[in-house]
Amino acid sequence: MNHRHAQALQAPTHLLYLHGFRSSPHSFKALRLQGWLRQHRPDVVWACPQLPPSPRAAIEAAQAVLAGWPAGRFAVAGSSLGGFYATVLAEATGCRAVLLNPAVDPARDLAPHIGEHAFFHEPDQRFDFRPEYVDELRALAPAAITRPERYLAIIAKGDEVLDWREMAARYAGCAMRLIEGSDHGLSDFDAHLPTLLDFLHLQP
Length: 204
Hints:
There is one protein chain. The protein has a single domain (3-199), classed as Rossmann fold (3-Layer(aba) Sandwich). By secondary structure, the protein is of the alpha/beta class. It contains eight helices and eight strands. Mean pLDDT is 91; it is low at 1-9. It has helices spanning 3-10, 28-40, 55-67, 81-93, 106-110, 131-140, 164-170, 189-199; strands spanning 14-18, 45-47, 74-79, 96-100, 115-118, 126-129, 151-156, 175-179.
């Protein structure tokens, strides 16, 4: 078996994308990745659900998607809070995960944001972020990153929301792309999409 064929066998057949806090399936990065797959890898099953505000409910919603997928053949990707969720799922299932500016301690970071919020992409739609959700985040947090070879972290030093040093320390030993500049939303995501695709062996 040649190396290229061995890599092809490792490519996931299913990919779950988890958006961040106040985001949605209309996330620029989610739409860009979905569009690339539709054009170049239509064989890959894609899911990007709207996650509920409750972290526990969000993980349950993601687990419900994964439960219908073949074990060992799926991967998860997540941005910001979705990167934290992707880590929780990777630790629980053993799947590979791609993390885009992942939240390291969302219980700490979101505690000051209890209250009502508008969604980025639908500002007329609002939701409540409740105090108990901080406790749920704390309860979900994995104690450690195991099998770092499962992870790719794409981290922007120009992230204006999260500390890139904290992200890099959390995912030390994992495959990592440290970006000079950029921003929390990775507005230059197209430049980093090939790194994600190579890690998952999805390049045609």
